[in-house]
């Protein structure tokens, strides 16, 4: 995994979006996209963040990078509190924190050539001398599996997989310490997905990167991650080493997610746990445990008292009043 050094620490992080209505756009409520999230990421590890669409994964990633300003809480990067740093002081730190966005088409400026896209960060942060930028861009393209002859092309001239490789090249151009990959593979064809995943793993070793890998695909997360963090409706419900998580998940929501992962063996029978109802609105989350409205093992206390995220086994944290109440055996 990592080397024991905490590279990123998030404490009680919250991101609320105002809901406005009426002629005067008065605030009538708050959408609690991220609601009190705390965790650490060790240098050199890959932390996989999973959960259903709308659980707050992407908002969490963008808030950590200060692309969205946090409502409350603190963000520490390499021991420094960056939560309220002004733009001038945050700029040199941004060099060490990069993001690969979900949609490579919308995240690349369609009016800029590949050369201009990749040179932009190098120029702003003065990573390499101006007269060697073209050579650096060509080396970046070759490193992500593209021809150096592509430098004068525009994003619309590439396939989805090639555009994502350009996004990856942009992310590693500044030699960052932390890369947040936000559903970086979800928009790609299955045949391309494996190639890009292999590329991410190669770059991690080559550049000693630390990944926050956000995805809804547990099979991919299992392949690349060291630890797994599960989010539900803006909250962390489980955090565990990969082996422990897939062998014995302790939160009912985690069990349901793992039961949905297909097994490529026709002789293995598996019954999926189907959760009843939809994910509640982050505008009015249910009281107590936010999962209790869909949990097949919910009891009275679950609707009244919100469970804390506690370490129930070494390195295995879960926010549940009855951890282990639903098992994978019940889904087989």
From TrEMBL:
Keywords, ordered alphabetically: ATP-binding, Nucleotide-binding, Transport
Gene3D superfamilies on file: P-loop containing nucleotide triphosphate hydrolases (3.40.50.300)
InterPro entries: AAA+_ATPase (IPR003593), ABC_transp_ATP-bind (IPR050319), ABC_transporter-like_ATP-bd (IPR003439), ABC_transporter-like_CS (IPR017871), Oligopep_ABC_C (IPR013563), P-loop_NTPase (IPR027417)
UniProt xrefs under SUPFAM superfamilies: P-loop containing nucleoside triphosphate hydrolases
One example of a Gene Ontology biological process annotation: peptide transport
Single Gene Ontology MF annotation: ATP binding
Occurrences of domain ABC transporter (ranges): 8-258
UniProt xrefs under NCBIfam families: oligo_HPY
Name of the molecule in the record: ATP-binding cassette domain-containing protein
Organism: Candidatus Caldatribacterium saccharofermentans
